[in-house]
Every structure is written in structure tokens, then in C-alpha cells.
């Protein structure tokens, strides 16, 4: 018999962030605004980078990829939550649940690895400035940007293949606003040890390993910056890394709390709070973090806006 046919659960109920109708109205308005800001910010960065030839460099190429990933990550979760609040229907079919889970992990893994790739780019730019264009060749940039997408495809697919072998019976209520792996595993009435082991292995590969690589890159960067004789040179070098460090803190501060902390200290409320940071807040803030202190990107965004105003007038 097929594993899927053994399951008596054809749909799940997403309990959302709150079951209080008054709070749900506030959450709808808040998340709608956050999603609109996120979409406008990330799509504007992609358009600005693609339309300005001065920004066709490895750093901005990776940033455009990050903006695309952030847009996908938020779009996979937030619109569905808004629909559920508006329609008062919180059910999601089994196939849709697995599809949402697939894309959540797909974009999440690309996000994590891409952040490490951007740290390597900063390391080469600061520690090997004379060889930067040689090292960061178009071919290497293509591999560094495309590799995480291919890698994530297979890892996310493996997660789903391991999920379809599970049987879900009885309780079908997920205390979350989207189909995340950990809450869904708790509902299974069959052995989930293989899934949990794979989660730990993947967490080590896509969270711990990139984080260690980022730390190693920044240790080398700090050492190189401290050797710069002028205070102005040191300040300029640090400023090129500050935006990336802010994103690293936002990303890994939430993902480590969700996937690497012991299950005994995790609660549904903490998981939902971390997920909100990861799927909504961080994708919304990233465009501001990268553009506010970046003169070239701000200039490209101003040009993009002025072109839109002229074309519409």
C-alpha cells in the first residue's frame, strides 16, 4: 500500500499566530503592510541592480539573488496566512502543505548558504583586493550563486520524500501559521526518527557550516582591516561589511533558535515568533539594511524611481 494512502488525514488545520478575532484583524493589517513593503523593497533592489551597469559586480549579483530568495520565502508563507485570516478558513490540503514545506526549506537553505557566499565575497574583496576580479570571475560567481539553488533543490526534495512515508492520524491541528517541518512531525503517529536525524544533518550542513565559514571569513577580514594604516581606510572597510553582519545576526539568530536548540526549551510560541522573524521581518528589513548605507545602491534606486515617474507622466 502507498504510504500516502495509509494516512487518514487529507488536510490540516493551521491554527495561525492567534485564535483571537480581534488580534487577527490587527495581524492581518500588520502583515499585509509588511508584505507590501517587503515586495516593493526586494523587487526594487533586483530591478535597480539589473538596470544599472555600474552594479553588475559580484557583490550586487549576490545581493540580487538574496532579494529574490527573500521575496520567495515571504511569498510562500505570508499571503496564505492573510487569506486564512480574511476567509476564516484555516484548512490546508495534504499536497498543499507538503508543497509549502518544500518551498519553505528550498528558499531557506538557499538563503543560509547565500549569506555565507556573500561573506566569502567580502573576504576576497578586503583581504585580496588586487586579485578580486581574477578570483571572483563570472564563472565562479555563477557557480557560487547557482550552487545553493541546486543543492537546496535536492535537500528540500529529500525532506518531502521522507515526509510522505509518514502516517498522520487523529489530531490534524498544526499550532503554526504555515506548514513547518517540526510541528508536522509531532502530529505523525509513526516513527519519525529518520526524519529527525535528517533534520539534524541538514541543520549542520546549511546552518552550522555556513555560520562557521562566515565567522572564519570575518576573523580574516578583521585581521586584514586592523593592518590598514589609516583610520579612514579602516572605517571604509568596516562599513562595507556592516550591512552583511546585520543580516547574518538576523538570519542565524532566528534559525539557530528554531533548529539547533534542544526541543525541551522550544515552545510553539517561540517557534512562531522565530518563524515570523525569519519569513516576514528579515525579508522586509534586508532591502533597508543594504540600501541605507550603500551610496551606489541608493543612487541606482533613485534613478529607477525617477525613470518610473518620467515614464508615467
TrEMBL record:
Mode of membrane association: Multi-pass membrane protein
GO cellular component, one term: plasma membrane
SUPFAM superfamilies, sorted: Family A G protein-coupled receptor-like (SSF81321)
Sample GO molecular function, one term: G protein-coupled receptor activity
Subcellular location: Cell membrane; Membrane
Main location: membrane
Gene3D superfamilies: Rhodopsin 7-helix transmembrane proteins
Residue ranges of the TM segments: 26-49, 61-82, 102-120, 140-168, 197-225, 237-260, 275-292
G-protein coupled receptors family 1 profile domain mapped to chain residues: 41-290
This protein's UniProt keywords: Cell membrane, G-protein coupled receptor, Membrane, Olfaction, Receptor, Sensory transduction, Transducer, Transmembrane, Transmembrane helix
Family statement drawn from the similarity comment of this UniProt entry: Belongs to the G-protein coupled receptor 1 family.
Chain's role: Putative odorant or sperm cell receptor.
Classification via PANTHER family: OLFACTORY RECEPTOR
Protein name (database record): Olfactory receptor
Gene name, Swiss-Prot/TrEMBL: LOC101678220
Amino acid at each position: 500500500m502507498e504510504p500516502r494512502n495509509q494516512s487518514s488525514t487529507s488536510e490540516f488545520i493551521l491554527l495561525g499566530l492567534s485564535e483571537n478575532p480581534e488580534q487577527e484583524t490587527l495581524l492581518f493589517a500588520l502583515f499585509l503592510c509588511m508584505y507590501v513593503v517587503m515586495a516593493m523593497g526586494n523587487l526594487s533592489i533586483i530591478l535597480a541592480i539589473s538596470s544599472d551597469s555600474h552594479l553588475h559586480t559580484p557583490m550586487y549579483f549576490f545581493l540580487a539573488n538574496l532579494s529574490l530568495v527573500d521575496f520567495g520565502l515571504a511569498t510562500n508563507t505570508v499571503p496564505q496566512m492573510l487569506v486564512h485570516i480574511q476567509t476564516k478558513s484555516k484548512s490546508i490540503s495534504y499536497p498543499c502543505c507538503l508543497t509549502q514545506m518544500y518551498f519553505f526549506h528550498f528558499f531557506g537553505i538557499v538563503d543560509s548558504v547565500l549569506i555565507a557566499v556573500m561573506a566569502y565575497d567580502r573576504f576576497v574583496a578586503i583581504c585580496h583586493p588586487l586579485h578580486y576580479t581574477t578570483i571572483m570571475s563570472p564563472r565562479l560567481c555563477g557557480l557560487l550563486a547557482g550552487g545553493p539553488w541546486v543543492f537546496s533543490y535536492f535537500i528540500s526534495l529529500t525532506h518531502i520524500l521522507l515526509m510522505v512515508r509518514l502516517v498522520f492520524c487523529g489530531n490534524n491541528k498544526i499550532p503554526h501559521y504555515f506548514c513547518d517541518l517540526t510541528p508536522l512531525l509531532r502530529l505523525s503517529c509513526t516513527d519519525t526518527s529518520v526524519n529527525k536525524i535528517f533534520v539534524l544533518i541538514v541543520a549542520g550542513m546549511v546552518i552550522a557550516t555556513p555560520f562557521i565559514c562566515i565567522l572564519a571569513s570575518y576573523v580574516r577580514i578583521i585581521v586584514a582591516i586592523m593592518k590598514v594604516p589609516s583610520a579612514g581606510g579602516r572605517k571604509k572597510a568596516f562599513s562595507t561589511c556592516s550591512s552583511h553582519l546585520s543580516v547574518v545576526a538576523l538570519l542565524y539568530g532566528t534559525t539557530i533558535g528554531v533548529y539547533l536548540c534542544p526541543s525541551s526549551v522550544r515552545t510553539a510560541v517561540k517557534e512562531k515568533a522565530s518563524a515570523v522573524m525569519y519569513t516576514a521581518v528579515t525579508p522586509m528589513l534586508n532591502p533597508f539594511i543594504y540600501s541605507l548605507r550603500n551610496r551606489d545602491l541608493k543612487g541606482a534606486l533613485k534613478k529607477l524611481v525617477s525613470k518610473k515617474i518620467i515614464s508615467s507622466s
